[in-house]
Amino acid sequence: DNSIDFDVYQWEKGDEYTLEAEANYFATEYGTTAEAVTINGIDGYKYVSAEDYAKNTYTVVNYMFEDDTYIIEICFWTVNTDAEYAAVDEIINTLKKN
Questions:
Q1: What whole-number distance in Å separates Cα of residue 93 and Cα of residue 87?
Q2: What separation in angstroms does the CA of 67 have from each of 7, 19, 23, 34, 73?
Q3: What is 37-95 written as a DSSP string?
Q4: 10-54 pLDDT, tens per residue?
Q5: Helix, strand or coil for residue 24?
Q6: Burial class of residue 6, CB neighbours in 10 A (0-12, 13-18, 19+)
Q7: Of 1, 53, 66, 83, which cross-links 19 as Cys (Cβ 3.0–4.6 Å)?
Q8: CA-to-CA distance for 23 and 89, rounded, in angstroms?
Q9: Mean pLDDT of the 59-77 span
């Protein structure tokens, strides 16, 4: 109830999807705007959404990245506290390219 949960999604880009278009699409679906970010040299997008689950509304911090084949989205579900936002920053900043 008072800790971060997260989901990870991955889908193939093919000729159909681009990272920027997908980030803008999902941000628009949630009434927000995607912003470009760089995490440890990895370019991507971030948007923050309000989402309902089990009769509660959560603030979800969403990051989207890509490689040659896939788009990857990491969604951090928070209860909208500064401590959780700091934890999200700490976690996302552990990402590295191999």
A1: 10
A2: 18, 10, 15, 19, 12
A3: EEETTEEEEEEEEEEEETTEEEEEEEEEEE-SSEEEEEEEEE-S-HHHHHHHHHHHTT-
A4: 999 999 999 999 999 999 999 999 999 999 999 999 999 999 999
A5: helix
A6: middle
A7: 66
A8: 19
A9: 97
The label of the residue with tokens 């009434």 reads: 31
- CA–CA gap between residue 35 and residue 63 (Å, rounded): 10
CB contact at 8 A, 64 and 22? yes
CA distance 41 to 89: 15
Which amino acid, residue 82?
A: D
HSE toward the beta carbon, residue 80, CA cutoff 13 A: 8
Q: Is 8 left (phi over 0), alpha (psi -120 to 50) or beta?
A: beta
